[in-house]
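Incident log, support desk, overnight shift.

02:14 A customer reports that sequence design results differ from what the structure should imply. Their input is reproduced verbatim below. On-call engineer (initials T.W.) acknowledged and began investigating.
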């Protein structure tokens, strides 16, 4: 994610009311589904969260989702969203009940065809009790029918669903799915998904991945758009952009489909958006050379409308960009940033949100590498500039990129000091090792999760060096680290060449 406006996003700290287990003594004695029930085990509720250290009630325990089929109907005139999500999952324990994360009004839930009871608990928990106990290893098909007005469904006054004049954007981090499909909403439970949305004919719907079929006319002058993601992704990577868009399709150098979409509301910012997003395939090609094979099945980008989001998000295979990024002209840096996340954040996701540096530090450093590649300032020059930009007594240095806290996962330090930390790692291990560490990391954790400790261990293994001092100093220690003048670049802060100083200023204006 790159923020364009200061108040764009607040990480929500939501607490769930204590979950009361409604024990049904007779339930455990009922025959299980599909195979005999072990005599000793008593089904228990799946936990209402996955124990994330920042957002403990995000996600749910007791099952693992393999696929979401999200079939929706949307009315831009009223923001009414209705539909059915079918979840294919596997039970990971004997379950008396389990939770989904969801906010809209639920009409019915069925589990393997059987009507289930359900209850709202806390802010975003939907507790589902099936009429029969669920056994560990059992395949689950959970069908949830629902409807609501996402823009009016508020949590602490906030909605992650952005209604705009001609449609809506379902784009947010770390909470997004709550407003449009029931899920196990934590990056630790990755799944594939199919998304289809029926809208009035003439409205476009863009989402992740590929289109398994052309938009299909439906009764009532409507059209159903279908999108498919075939590689596992985190729930917050799924997105919808609904409205008036010009769609540009092409083929990337690696043979993959490219789908770019531009809101027709962009006006004079439209050419700058196109001059940036149309370079996506070039950027992905360059990043593939640094980070390893591109992990997803399609590429592209969405330039959102002028009344839309104030940030950009690395939605899987197709980032979505707020209009502010084009206000000073083309901005390829943000395209570099969001597409770097396809490796760092999307394919390799945080195991716990406290590891957000693995996303933002790397995507920010990718911008420095791009600058270096383009001859617009080396990473060392950008390090020096950024280091000098924050006085030693700045609050900036008090946020630890390696453990920023739930309210600061998108703080400047995670991005800027995060990139500085990677540059210090590069200096410590040398370019040869550094540029082996990056693709090794994306290969070892492809379509999975990672922690900072795992990354440090990998970097130490490849470089053969003890890197504890680098990681401790740059990620886990408050205050501005001392940097020996000799270890820094030749450019002192006041003497930057104008070209990249201007570029960096543009970055900064956009990010803050
Ligand atoms: Zn980012």
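02:41 Re-run completed on a clean worker. Output:
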């Amino acid at each position: 994610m790159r923020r364009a406006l200061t108040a764009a996003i607040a990480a929500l700290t939501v607490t769930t009311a204590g979950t009361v287990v409604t024990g049904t003594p007779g339930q455990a004695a009922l025959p299980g589904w599909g195979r005999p029930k072990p005599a000793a085990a008593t089904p228990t509720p799946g936990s209402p969260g996955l124990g994330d250290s920042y957002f403990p009630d995000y996600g749910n325990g007791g099952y693992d989702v393999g696929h979401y089929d999200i079939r929706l109907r949307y009315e831009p005139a009223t923001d009414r969203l209705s539909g059915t999500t079918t979840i294919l999952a596997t039970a990971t324990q004997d379950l008396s009940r389990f939770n989904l994360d969801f906010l809209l009004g639920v009409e019915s839930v069925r589990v393997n065809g059987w009507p289930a009871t359900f209850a709202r608990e806390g802010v975003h928990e939907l507790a589902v009790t099936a009429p029969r106990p669920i056994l560990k290893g059992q395949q689950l098909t959970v069908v949830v029918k629902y409807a609501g007005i996402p823009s009016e469904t508020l949590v602490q006054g906030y909605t992650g669903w952005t209604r705009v004049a001609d449609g809506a954007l379902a784009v947010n981090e770390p909470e997004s799915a709550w407003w449009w499909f029931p899920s196990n909403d934590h990056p630790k439970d990755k799944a594939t998904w199919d998304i289809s949305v029926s809208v009035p004919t003439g409205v476009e719907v863009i989402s992740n991945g590929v289109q398994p079929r052309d938009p299909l006319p439906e009764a009532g002058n409507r059209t159903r758009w279908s999108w498919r993601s075939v590689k596992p992704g985190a729930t917050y990577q799924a997105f919808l952009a609904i409205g008036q868009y010009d769609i540009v399709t092409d083929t990337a150098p690696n043979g993959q489909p490219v789908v770019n979409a531009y809101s027709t509301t962009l006006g004079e910012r439209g050419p700058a958006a196109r001059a940036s997003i149309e370079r996506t395939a070039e950027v992905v090609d360059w990043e593939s050379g640094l980070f390893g094979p591109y992990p997803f099945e399609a590429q592209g980008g969405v330039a959102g409308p002028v009344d839309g989001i104030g940030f950009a998000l690395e939605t899987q295979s197709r980032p979505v960009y707020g209009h502010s990024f084009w206000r000073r002209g083309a901005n390829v840096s943000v395209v570099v940033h969001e597409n770097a996340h396809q490796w760092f954040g999307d394919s390799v996701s945080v195991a716990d949100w406290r590891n957000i540096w693995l996303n933002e530090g790397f995507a920010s450093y990718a911008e420095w590498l791009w600058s270096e590649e383009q001859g617009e300032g080396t990473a060392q020059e950008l390090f020096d500039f950024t280091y000098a930009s924050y006085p030693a007594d700045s609050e900036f240095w008090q946020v630890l990129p390696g453990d920023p806290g739930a309210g600061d996962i998108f703080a400047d330090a995670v991005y800027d000091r995060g990139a500085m930390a990677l540059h210090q790692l590069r200096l410590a291990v040398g370019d040869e090792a550094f540029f082996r560490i990056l693709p090794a990391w994306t290969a070892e954790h492809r379509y999975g999760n990672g922690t900072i400790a795992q990354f440090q261990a990998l970097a130490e293994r490849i470089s053969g060096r003890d890197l504890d001092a680098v990681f401790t100093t740059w990620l886990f220690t408050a205050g501005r680290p001392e940097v020996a003048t000799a270890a820094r670049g030749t450019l002192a802060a006041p003497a930057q060449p104008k070209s990249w100083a201007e570029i960096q200023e543009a970055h900064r204006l956009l990010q803050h």
